[in-house]
Amino acid sequence: MTDYLPFSAVRQMPEFTDYYQAAKRFCSFLEENNCLTTVDFLICTRAQLLHLYTVALAMPWVDLQSNEDFEEKLSVDAFQKVLQGVAEQLGEVRYYWHVFDPVNDFDAEPVCGDVLDDLCDIYKDLKYSLMIFGLGKQACEENALWQLKSDFDAHWSRHCINALSAIHFYLEQFK
Predict the structure, then answer these.
(1) Which domain holds residue 86?
(2) Most exposed residue of 96, 100, 158, 159, measured as fewest CB within 10 angstroms of its CB?
């Protein structure tokens, strides 16, 4: 059973600070588009994802007292800029094969994954929560903390694992 902690307790925990900082670094890393070589980009991305996954896993659940929807959205233009920058960094190193649930014998059909899609889905989830958190009100921060953990558990952890696997094998090819 998952334990839910009060917002005020989670807000003060180093696990929150670590996750929050890692999320900001990951988003900045993708936004900055430093024109690294593909190999350097993969190496940096791998380090970012490994750290992000580790700190997200350690983040406790927030006992959500208010469930609000927020109008804050990432602009289409801003997202397209990130998408284009990541696509340029990846070049031809994007697609890979995997199964959705590798421990389910009945779901063993391979599907084509896309590192670009993985990274940008993680980015969107994190960026939205960071934007909500940045609104500065306690209800916003509480919802953002809950969303950070929920998005990891329900969505982007799989994208992260799949991207890490693909990056591992692409980097093996470059040795």
Answers:
(1) 4-173
(2) 100
